[in-house]
Design a protein that fits this description.
11 helices, 11-stranded antiparallel sheet, Beta-galactosidase, Chain A, domain 5, TIM Barrel, binds calcium ion, 8-stranded antiparallel sheet
């Protein structure tokens, strides 16, 4: 581990204080390679910042500050009382991840402002300039007397210098983050969630998000006029935005900046802005692939609730455990094993799930004993139905039960439009709820997969039991809705997935869903489903199809081989919404894996293999769309071939419409 910390105090740029013209100051901090710069400015007592990449303006002077309850505010009549710049360069190791060693290298500027009133309240702003973007946050230490303070508005603005194409999902909608992305000009946006990804008219790739969201409301972005965006904090039901105990630290407001789209994906700035791992013992946290009593419920073969087609029965669980053994899969998710499920389980209501009582026909002890005898770990499931009152009353008993049976993984769902039929999932109430559950799970040595989550802001660095989450339209939509179009999976890597791992649940090889609802299918080729395991990063990857669709299928070999923990990741080519080719190196061997996927268009791509070790020989096991295959015609046929390659070779890939290629490069 390399560590270098330096700190230089800079006050030379500042003028004295007192008269109005002395309330002016300007100071710039630049990233280590000098390309990204942030300029802080205090003009007439009002703070603002601007951002440049080289000579290209990205953000014009933009307001900063707060409005509190009862009309009080902290955004003007300020003077600079201290500034400090420092450099930080450290390389740290991920417990698991898409890259093992991550460099955290930035230049920081801290500015301390003080009000020119009797109160003399202070506000600290920290700016960090990285080679892959910029970030800033506010710290308000309190005024020494108040023990509560309510933020009604964070005034942070992002006045984009130029228009561009944005990929976005709408904020303040009942299905949380589960929407298809729209591509349109920034100048047409309303209020959107982050990550918000933009291809600017200057040719730069930008993504707005936030990092280390703790005890605060999540930030959405509202367009005010032209290309000016404003921080819009998701409110409580009573209209307050953030309730504090008199002091607060905001999450980091982040802007990733790249010259090509793939560099957004290999930027680790969000993780770098989170605190280091707090868990001493991480031996119980295990990245894995898993089968599930799950897809059967979504395609209508099984029910979640007690019925003649109940999915979670002891008998079905034993059958799935036998499939795990046969297919070489060591984790199994079982949904619907508990009391409380009804045919109306997904409607907005205060559903009363039990987290300890088994459904008729299901015996948790028998199932976990049988699983253990076969070397299989059972993944627990808690569907809260967004009845958080009910869940928190039972959370210790529910997690304690899983611990008692030796389970170390849990999926937790929050289906519903509001938590407790009242609060947005992404307001401060939700942020605190999800953090509480994550910490509670760590106490019970449970690794978490949240569905209907709060968006990821890099918590996995601090709590490596935070494995994956949903937080977008996943595979399930293909089972029971009009589905996701082929372009969806070539937008996700540049938008939702910039925030962190997603439990997308790939791997449906029966793409026509023969046992499912009439007219539903996956709008993909089967080869593309394999490629998703490399393109869509997650430390927990479901093998989502019915196990009988894997049994005897030659393409399943790739799904057996593909790892879930990587030492390195590179994006070889990409265009947002069009195509992407990603390669990753296995953390536990010398093998590399490639996933290449396309939207509705068929494409031919040539891939240089110079990422492979020089001089070494690899066997490339190639799983490609068979001739004439596309998402509309013959989608399930995969052509499997193999050839010897070295780093000097290149490979021609043909991706059918809605198709893909997956390759294992096994080092010989
Ligand atoms: C929605 C989740 O995304 C899905 O995976 C789960 O099966 C259902 N809710 C039931 O809880
Ligand atoms: Ca969902």
């Amino acid at each position: 581990m390399i560590k270098k910390l330096t700190s230089i105090a800079i006050t030379a740029f500042l003028f004295g204080c007192g008269s109005p013209e002395n309330k002016d100051s300007k100071i710039t901090v630049s990233s280590p390679n000098g390309k990204n710069s942030i300029t802080f400015e205090l003009r007439q007592g009002k703070p603002s910042y601007s951002v440049k990449h080289g000579e290209t303006g990205i953000i014009d002077a933009s307001e900063m500050g707060f409005v509190f309850k009862n009309g009080d505010s902290l955004h003007n009549n300020l003077r600079v009382v201290n500034t400090n710049t420092s450099e930080h360069d450290e390389t740290w190791e991920q417990v698991w991840g898409e890259k093992q060693f991550i460099q955290d290298h930035y230049q920081q500027l801290e500015v301390v402002l003080q009000e020119e009133t009797d109160q003399k309240r202070q506000l600290k702003i920290q700016f960090r300039a990285f080679d892959d973007g910029i970030a800033f946050r506010y710290q308000y230490p309190g005024n020494g007397t108040e023990d509560s303070l309510v933020i009604m508005d964070e005034l942070t603005r992002f006045n984009l210098s130029n228009d561009g194409e944005a990929w976005w999902i709408p904020a303040y909608q009942d299905n949380r983050y589960e929407y298809l992305f729209t591509q349109s000009a920034v100048s047409t946006l309303d209020t959107v969630h982050t990550p918000l990804t933009i291809k600017s008219n200057d040719g730069l790739f930008l993504s707005f998000h936030e990092a280390n969201l703790i005890n605060y409301a999540s930030m959405t972005l509202a367009r005010e006029n032209g290309t000016a965006l404003k921080c819009d904090l998701v409110p409580w039901a009573d209209g307050d935005r953030v309730k504090t105990n008199g002091s607060f630290t905001t999450p980091w407001r982040t802007l990733q900046i790249a010259e090509n789209p793939g560099d957004l994906i290999t930027s680790y700035m969000i993780l770098n802005l989170n605190d280091p791992n707090k868990l001493e013992d991480t031996s119980w946290i295990e990245p894995h692939k898993y089968l599930g009593i799950w897809w059967g419920m979504h395609i209508g073969k099984y029910s979640f609730w007690e019925s003649p087609i109940q999915g979670a029965t002891t008998e079905n669980a034993r059958m799935y455990i036998d499939y795990c053994e046969k297919l070489g899969v060591d984790h199994l998710l079982i949904e619907g094993w508990n009391k409380g499920w009804t045919p109306q389980w997904y409607e907005n209501a205060m559903h009363m799930f039990s987290f300890t009582k088994e459904a008729d026909g299901f015996d948790l002890k028998e199932v976990t004993d049988y699983a253990r005898s076969k070397g299989v770990s059972i993944i627990g499931y808690h569907e809260t139905g967004s009845n958080i009152i009910n869940y928190l009353e039972q959370i210790d008993a529910g997690m304690g039960l899983y611990q008692k049976y030796g389970m170390h993984d849990i999926k937790i769902g929050q289906v519903g439009s509001r938590l407790n039929m009242k609060e947005w999932h992404h307001g401060q109430f939700g942020v605190n709820y999800y953090r509480f559950v994550l910490e509670k799970a760590a106490e019970y040595e449970l690794a978490v997969n949240f569905h209907e989550p709060i968006k990821d802001t890099g918590e996995r660095r601090t709590y490596p039991n935070m494995m994956a989450r949903e937080g977008a339209r996943g595979q399930e939509y293909n089972a029971w809705s009009e589905g996701n179009p082929p372009s969806h999976t070539v937008i996700l890597p540049f938008t939702r997935m910039l925030s962190g791992p997603m439990d997308f649940t790939p791997g449906i090889l029966d793409v026509e869903i023969k046992q499912g609802y009439e007219g539903r299918d996956v709008h993909t080729t089967a080869a593309k489903q394999l490629a998703l395991y490399v393109v869509l990063y997650s430390p927990v990857q479901m093998l989502a199809d019915l196990p009988e669709n894997y049994d005897g299928n030659p393409a399943f070999k790739f799904l057996q081989d593909v790892p879930v923990d990587w030492s390195d990741t590179r994006v070889l080519n990409a265009e947002i919404g069009e195509y992407i080719t990603t390669v990753r190196k296995d953390k536990n061997s010398e093998d590399w894996y490639l996933g290449s996927i396309t939207n509705e268009e068929a494409r031919d791509l040539e891939i240089a293999l110079d990422f492979l070790e020089e001089g070494a020989v690899y066997e490339a096991q190639i799983y490609a769309d068979a001739e004439g295959t596309g998402y509309e015609t013959n989608p399930a046929e995969i052509e499997v071939s193999s050839r010897e390659v070295t780093s000097k070779d290149s490979l021609k890939l043909h991706l059918g419409k809605g198709g893909g290629t997956a390759i294992r490069f096994g080092k010989k």
